[in-house]
Here is the input.
Amino acid sequence: MVNDRAFYLRDTVAVARQLIGAGLFVRCGKEVLSGRIVETEAYCGPEDLACHAARGRTARTEVMFGEPGHAYVYMIYGMYFCLNLVTREAGRPEAVLIRGVELPDGTLLSGPGKTCRHFGIDKRMNGADITGGGPIWTEKRRRAFPVVERPRVGVDYAGEWKDAPLRFILADPKKPELLQALLKIGARRPH
DNA sequence: TATACGATCACCT
DNA sequence: GGTGATCGTATAC
Here is the structure.
């Protein structure tokens, strides 16, 4: 069942958690590529110093300020794209970053750049409707899985928000190696 | 107009 | 552990 706009019109952390284990579908040319979402991060509006919207409403972040259920795609480091799913009501800029996907053959796409590269997601899909009929959609998971929380990756500049546990990772007891692989990214030295 | 840098990744030692 | 690739965006001038 396709996640509709009401699904995205909710608390961003709840959406980020419920997308763990959900299906991701992307129309890539004539074929439809799919996978299972295994890692997400929540970005929670202007107050969240790690969220792009914390620096105001700009041409880049415009989609995040719009209706929920749309794709916010931006380029990072000059060579990668990141896919985000916009949540909350218009005027409230929040989104969920898709950081990791497990493909049907078991291949793990570990990281947002690799995920977009595999699915052929680029800036042309920025603003696309993701509630069905468009190039991207998600389908509800059939059951809940244990989820591990961690601080988000690559947001050390975000002051008190850098340690917020807004990164969510699938902890499928049948696939412990998957969690292990994802935890290597952004691992911090104990102090 | 100029400059610094990022919600990354691959490859090096 | 570290660094280079590569460019759109934000910010400073």
